[in-house]
Amino acid sequence: MGFRVQRVAVVATGVIGASWAAYFLAQGLEVDATDPAPGARERLQAAVARHWPVLERSGLAPGARMERLRFHDRLEDALAHADFVQESGPERLDFKVDLLRRMDDAAPHHAILASSSSGLSVSAMQAQCLRPERVVLGHPFNPPHLIPLVEVGGGDKTSPESIAVAMDFYKAIGKHPIHVRREVKGHIANRLQAALWREAFHLVNEGVASVSDIDTAIAQGPGLRWALMGPFMNLHLSGGDGGIGHLLAHLGGPIEDWWNDLGAPQMTPVLQQRVVDGMKQALAGRASAELADARDALLIGLLHAKQATPILDGPDRPNY
Q1: Cα separation of 261 and 263, whole Å?
Q2: Strand (E) or helix (H) holding 228
Q3: pTM for this one?
Q4: Hey, is 243 helix, strand or coil?
Q5: For 207-265, what is each residue's pLDDT tens digit?
């Protein structure tokens, strides 16, 4: 990086922003946060305290302390000394355009402005900025304080240097950034998820399987492998000594046939209610908070195991 990020500003402290704030603190950074919503300060402090035990089990960086968090009522005060700004406001283009314009006015000239947007165009979001070259995509996966993936990309006016700085920063704090090389709705990972969701809803709509059985099909099947390796590496290993080339030579035709048979469901009220009812049955009285806590505990174990097995991460492994 051309400079060392020491102070991060978090703009908007809802679920994603609060998770980011906790993670930045756990990495030993100074964090300035702001959110205009009533009670935001108290909710952020409570969220950071709630996440902290999990982050302690994951491993804190030297100097990591919750007391390094400062909340500001004014955006300008929060950004005044920032080296890097992580924005996680509502997913509305008009809102993002105006917010990034204000952030651009308030932040020091060297600061990178990163948006957590899950699907909006950086080109559109940076439209009213005087320094659009420093606006980048920094899309995390929920919860950001645990999931390593960050999607980094730029718009028409983003400089390659800003993308490089963002990639280096996220890697330096233990994230696993990937470069979105061309703007597309939903970026990369959300599009991959959407493809799976589309077929899952189709199978429910067609009466092929229940909501619970579809979740089981992934959680007890390919999802276990996907947590370790991506789809192409899994296909490669399925090809034996011949690798992915051997597999595609033998299964390429059938795979294409399956593609042609995939569904295109409409999100009708009937289908939505069918899925909601199926989810109630699958929960069987279990509370969502309890499930989230159990998920996070397993995630920590999985992340530690993956960190101890660097061969699975390939050449772009971050410096944990």
Answers
A1: 6
A2: none
A3: 0.92
A4: helix
A5: 999 999 999 999 999 999 999 999 999 999 999 999 999 999 999 999 999 999 999 99
